[in-house]
């Protein structure tokens, strides 16, 4: 092998190794930095609902509420975004006029190009006042269901999990759509033509060929969306109102903070390593959570590709 | 007798196509409506967000001082000043991020396409790039904080932000470059080998130039994406209302950080100075992102290999 070749090969292989090492390094550094804060934590990290980290000599923090709010917002966003994304993906691959399919897909992708802080500001300043009457109505008619119970930021209907979930759903649309679209587009033409020849209507063609073929890709895409939702930071930090001294109470109209938005909302406490360590510990949980979700999503999509 | 004849006639010529039943027709129509509706639902927030940004942001943008001054010498409720300091920060941090992540990302893509084959390391790398693209930006920021600030003891700075953005940009660069390298025909590589050109020269002189236009497009879109990130800025750099060209020390503003700072500290009443500032900054950011995307298209057209 010529020296030039050897250098170039080692260089590019090295770059590959760096990327693999990066993931491991992220995990290691977060663990190392979290340990000092965790060892001085006066509350139980997993079951406590308190978050007092302002005083580095008296740390008391637990992630229970953060975890609950994170999962609540993400699932709400997913429940809204999944059917709509499915519709968009079907529209772009099966319904849109051939010539317009590409520009239409570009329009949906543009949603992903909007910075998330702009979504956040739009969500709290523009959308929230319009959503508040809906939230108020849901709350007053369905308050027996804990999901729609009176929230801990009452009478504030703006900075709630509900608003955050709706805005987050909009941000997930392009992510879930683009991958689902790719999979739906690969439905074998023979299947579609076969169904058409049997006299199936357009919807029946989709139900019997496109959906079964693309199901796992769609589920994988939705899980990628979930991973994105769990880690979304600034849009939620802008929207969610954090009520002082109150706990999350299983209502969509509660305020609160997710793992990510808690860190963003309290960046001022990153002035000493102990307080920062507490946030790094919660960030570590977020990292593990997103890693698991992305791992599962990629495995589902990978299986699909192997067929 | 006649009745049997009728029967045979009926059996002999069944209708070739059954009429589509009303229930099936209704379902089909419903599905069509729902599918169109979901597309419109996706377009509505896009139009609404862009309208909000443009309508609220246009007030300050046309003045030259918006582009040539900072907020250092104006009070928080005083009309005037501009976002030059934030534009400088956004461009500098983005550029530094690109300088680090483009070569690294390109090398990873070259490894995956040209050297990796189906090897174990290549599979692991591909998987890790996927995982990296799912790492939340705030986690990337915490990692750089733990590495750069706590472990190395270096100050919070624009450069630390660039490093966090590198983590977010690498997977996008790798993905797009890998895709572009894979569509370079093998004939080109083989022709080059047949002439005795070494592999690394083949990659540098034949494969990369052929894929260049697509790679540039992908890189610039990735750049536009990371420039809008806010989470790393909060943890890794302080806000400064003055122009600061130095990436390595003191606070440095950037457009998303400016928006977040104004939101947290200033009045958000419609028509107030704070309100005008955040939406002005939002429109400025959208314009920068749009220009970069436009440039990506133009540049990749210019360097595209000539087609017959």
Describe the structure.
- The complex is a heterodimer of chains A (307) and B (308).
- Chain A is built from 10 helices and 2 strands; from the N terminus they run αββααααααααα.
- Chain A has helices at 3-39, 64-95, 98-113, 116-142, 161-185, 189-197, 202-231, 234-239, 259-265, 273-306, and strands at residues 51-52, 60-61.
- Chain A is flat, with a radius of gyration of 23 Å.
- The mean pLDDT of chain A is 91.
- Chain B has 12 helices and no strands.
- Chain B has 2 domains: 20-57; 66-303, MetI-like fold (Orthogonal Bundle), CATH 1.10.3720.
- By secondary structure, chain B is mainly α.
- Chain B is 73% helix and 0% strand.
- The mean pLDDT of chain B is 89.
CATH class of the largest domain in chain B equals: Mainly Alpha
**What class do helices, strands and sheet pairing of chain B give?**
mainly alpha
* Main sheet record of chain B: none
Oligomeric grouping of the chains: heterodimer
The appropriate CATH architecture of chain A is Orthogonal Bundle
Identify the CATH homologous superfamily of the largest domain in chain B: MetI-like
Number of E-type strands of chain B: 0
Please count the helical segments of chain A.
10
Sheet of most strands of chain A: 2 strands, antiparallel
């Amino acid at each position: 092998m010529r020296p030039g070749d050897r250098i170039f090969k080692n260089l590019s292989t090295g770059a590959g190794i760096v990327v693999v090492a990066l993931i491991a390094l992220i995990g290691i550094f977060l663990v190392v930095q979290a340990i000092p804060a965790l060892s001085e934590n006066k509350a139980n990290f997993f079951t406590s609902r308190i978050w007092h980290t302002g005083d580095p000599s008296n740390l008391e923090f637990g992630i229970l509420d953060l975890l609950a709010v994170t999962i609540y917002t993400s699932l709400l966003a997913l429940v809204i975004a999944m059917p709509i994304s499915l519709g968009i993906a079907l529209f772009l691959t099966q319904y849109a006029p051939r010539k317009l399919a590409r520009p239409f897909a570009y329009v949906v992708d543009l949603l992903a190009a909007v910075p998330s802080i702009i979504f956040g500001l739009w969500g709290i300043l523009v959308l929230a006042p319009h959503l508040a009457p809906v939230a108020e109505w849901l709350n007053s008619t369905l308050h027996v269901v804990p999901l729609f119970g009176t929230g801990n930021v009452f009478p504030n209907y703006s900075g709630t999990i509900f608003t955050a979930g709706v805005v987050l759903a909009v941000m997930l649309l392009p992510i879930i759509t683009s991958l689902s679209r790719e999979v739906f587009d690969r439905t074998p033409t023979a299947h579609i033509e076969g169904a058409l020849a049997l006299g199936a209507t357009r919807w029946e063609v989709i139900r019997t060929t496109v959906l079964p073929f693309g199901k796992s890709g769609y589920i994988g895409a939705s899980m990628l969306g979930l991973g994105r939702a769990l880690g979304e930071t600034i849009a939620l930090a802008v929207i969610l109102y954090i009520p002082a001294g109150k706990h999350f109470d299983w209502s969509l109209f509660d305020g609160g903070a997710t793992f990510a938005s808690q860190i963003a909302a309290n960046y001022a406490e990153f002035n000493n390593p102990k307080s920062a360590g507490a946030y790094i510990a919660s960030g570590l949980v977020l990292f593990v959570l997103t890693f698991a979700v992305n791992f599962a999503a990629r495995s589902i999509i990978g299986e699909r590709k192997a067929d | 007798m006649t009745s049997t004849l009728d029967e045979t006639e009926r059996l002999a010529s069944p209708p070739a196509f059954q009429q589509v039943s009303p229930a099936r027709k209704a379902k089909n129509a419903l599905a069509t409506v729902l599918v169109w509706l979901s597309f419109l639902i996706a377009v509505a927030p896009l139009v609404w967000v862009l309208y909000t940004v443009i309508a609220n942001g246009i007030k300050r943008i046309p003045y030259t001082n918006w582009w040539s001054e900072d907020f250092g010498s104006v009070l928080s409720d005083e009309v005037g000043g501009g976002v030059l300091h934030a534009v400088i920060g956004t461009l500098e941090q983005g550029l530094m991020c690109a300088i680090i992540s483009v070569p690294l990302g390109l090398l990873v893509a070259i490894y995956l396409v040209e050297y990796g084959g189906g090897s174990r390391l290549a599979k692991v790398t591909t998987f890790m790039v996927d995982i990296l693209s799912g790492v939340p930006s705030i986690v990337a920021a915490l990692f750089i904080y733990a590495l750069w600030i706590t472990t190395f003891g270096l100050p919070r700075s624009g450069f630390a932000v660039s490093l966090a953005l590198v983590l977010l940009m690498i997977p996008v660069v790798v993905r797009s470059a890998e895709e572009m390298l894979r569509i370079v025909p093998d004939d080109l590589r083989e022709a080059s080998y047949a002439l005795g050109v070494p592999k690394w020269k083949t990659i540098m002189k034949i494969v990369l130039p052929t894929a260049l236009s697509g790679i540039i497009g992908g890189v610039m879109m990735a750049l536009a994406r990371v420039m809008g990130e806010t989470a790393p800025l909060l943890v890794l750099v302080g806000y400064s209302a003055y122009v600061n060209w130095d990436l390595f020390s003191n606070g440095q503003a950037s457009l998303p950080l400016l928006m977040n700072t104004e939101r947290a500290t200033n009045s958000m009443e419609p028509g107030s100075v704070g309100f005008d500032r955040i939406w002005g900054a939002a429109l400025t950011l959208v314009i920068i992102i749009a220009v970069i995307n436009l440039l990506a298209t133009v540049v990749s057209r210019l360097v595209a290999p000539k087609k017959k």
